[in-house]
Amino acid sequence: MSPPKRAIDKKFRVPADTPPFTKADLKAAIPAHCFERSTFKSTLYLIADVIMVTTLYYLSTLIPEYPSYFAIVMWPTYWILQGGVSTGLWVIAHECGHRAYSDSVFICDCVGWVLHSILLVPYHSWRISHGKHHRSTGDIDRDEVFVPAKLSQLKQDVSAAFKKPNSVFVVLKLIGMFLVGWYLYLMFNGGGRDYGAPTNHYNPRSPLFNKRQFWDVVISDAGIAFTLLGLAYWTYHSGFTTVACYYGVPLLVVNFWLVLYTYLHHTDEALPHYSSESWNWLQGALTTVDRDYGRFWNTLHHDIGNTHVCHHLFSKIPHYHAKEATEAIKPILGDYYYENKKPIIKALWDTAHRCTYVDDSSSDGALWFVEPKSA
After folding, report:
1. DSSP label at residue 371
2. What are the pLDDT digits (tens) for 146-181?
3. Which one of 28, 87, 142, 359 is most buried, counting C-beta atoms within 10 A?
4. Residue 276 in contact with residue 9, Cβ under 8 Å?
């Protein structure tokens, strides 16, 4: 039986004490077939996504044949749909990095490298940093993405500096995050862990990587280089506007979705971070939240958003088993399972306003977001 549904209450907090269950308890509750990875089934999902991408591209080539007033509606429609479908490809490549696509590491890496390279993602480089995120989720010092600032880092008097941001600032912050945040992270580790040295996903000698991973990063860079050369050739023959309309804007939509998922599934008033001394893997894995994006987007994106808790507990479970696995572990997780049913726009707005600093003065090691006070 599933745990009772809670009313949305910003003051609710997920339990931060040691869970009364283990990862083994959770694994035992999940049907064995959920852990089975089928290359054939995964490839069927891949083929379906490729067919949708190809069909949308073909239909978009017909747009210039119609009057301009038609294009005003159809181009944005194409961008949203193509970006949404391509995000499904991004999710499949992400599963390859987790070895959830196939039992074969070689197949995972081949498929993931091709898909992520086409989407200008350095496959192995991000696979490595993302793996570190999964190993250190919720650790205030070792997590890799959307690491909040500590209240003690405020240089000025807290009462004077820690004011609630106005709406204009929040809007500009979100626009910047969705437009360039992904590339700032890849190039400068913006929003990520502080390594005390320049850090990026393209330098094989970056602090992100160890010596054994050198050639993985080089191979990732080669994939990006091939894609950029292809885009340059396309631009030379067809023009910048053509490439931007058919490829560039949908890619921005893909980036929007992946940033949105990462941000909203690890940033919430109800979720703590932990000091490194108090952190453990299981509690860290539970510092994430499931959100419902509606059947349409959930389906296109292979349920990456509404099964995110399970994904952090068992990242090798393929997406086509994730919903069943989620339902199986809910009764054991109880209050440790967190699903926020706020509409996504409201959740994004509230999170951007309230989730910037964590109070690192706590003696129990659980660091909660501190909501700024109105000026």
Report:
1. P
2. 999 888 887 555 554 566 778 899 999 999 999 999
3. 87
4. no
Q: Is residue 372 part of a domain?
A: no
Q: Residue 18 domain-assigned?
A: no
Cross-strand pairs, 373: 163
Q: What percent of the chain has pLDDT over 70?
A: 94
Handedness of CA 98, 102, 105, 107 (dihedral sign): negative
Q: Distances in Å between the alpha carbon of 281 and those of 143, 234, 348?
A: 11, 46, 26
Contact, 139 vs 273, CB < 8 A? yes
Average pLDDT value over all residues in the chain: 92
Give the mean model confidence (pLDDT) for residues 126-138: 97
Count of domains observed in the chain:
1
The answer to whether the beta carbons of residues 136 and 108 sit under 8 Å apart is no
Element (H, E) at 332: helix 319-333
Backbone angles phi, psi at 327, to 5 degrees: -65, -30
Helix pair angle (344-354, 249-264), 10° resolution: 70
Phi/psi at 131 (nearest 5 deg)? -65, -40
Residue 359 within a domain: yes
244-260: average pLDDT: 98
pLDDT score of 371? 75
Question: Pick from 254, 266, 344, 277: which is nearest to 311 by CA?
Answer: 266
Cα(246)–Cα(57) distance, rounded to whole angstroms?
7
Residue 136 pLDDT > 60? yes
* pLDDT on residue 166: 82
Contact 88, 73 (CB under 8 A): no
Calpha distance 82→60 (Å, rounded):
10
Give 246-281 as a DSSP string: IIIHHHHHHHHHHHHHHHHTT--TT--EE-TTT--H
pTM of the entire predicted model: 0.93
Q: Which of 83, 94, 32 is nearest to 321 (CA)?
A: 32
The yes-or-no verdict on residue 339 having pLDDT over 70 is yes
Residue 13 belongs to some domain of the structure: no
Mean pLDDT of 90-109: 98
Q: What is the mean pLDDT of residues 250-266?
A: 97
Residues spanned by the domain of 315: 23-367
Cβ(320)–Cβ(336) below 8 Å: no
